[in-house]
Amino acid sequence: MSAVGHAAGIRVLCLDVDGVLTDGTVALDDMGHETKRFNVKDGLGIAVWRRLGGDVAVITGRAGLAVRHRLEELGVRRLHAGVVDKASAIADVARDAGCPLSQVAFVGDDLPDLAAMRCCGYPVAVHDAAPEVRAAAAYVTSAHGGHGAVREVVEHLLRSQDRWNDALAMFDPAAGTGRAPEAGSDRPRSA
Hints:
The protein is α/β, with parallel strands linked by helices. It has 8 helices and 8 strands; from the N terminus they run αβββαβαβαβαβαβαα.
């Protein structure tokens, strides 16, 4: 089956944090408080994926409040933080979502992500990922981690599932399917 064929069956999108949702920078202030920068385009991609019925999980080796706050804003409830074995975490996510691993995509950037990429149905690497991670990926983004790569992955998945017009219709019915949004629909806000 082609990479696009695998992408067409994805129901759950799993994401690493540092290097995927962020550019990999960890900033510490004088008090030792960690801060992270998240890209609003990635947030919008996550919101659109969820609005169209996709599930999202975040699997990270680190733990921190910045990630929890951002995921709370986006309505993402599946956070696996402080994870050493990301492949086991992906198996847990698939089981909790009620789907086989073949319907799970994982976006990674560095060596700790390799085992997770090898066990999921659709491994994705961000553009600036380690060479080994890029080699393990079915799809490599044009965007670097923390710079819209997740938004790009969501568009790629939705296009492969013939649902991109549904995403467009959330914001511009004339550009999407031509259907007007339903009264009271909760169009994703700029994230």
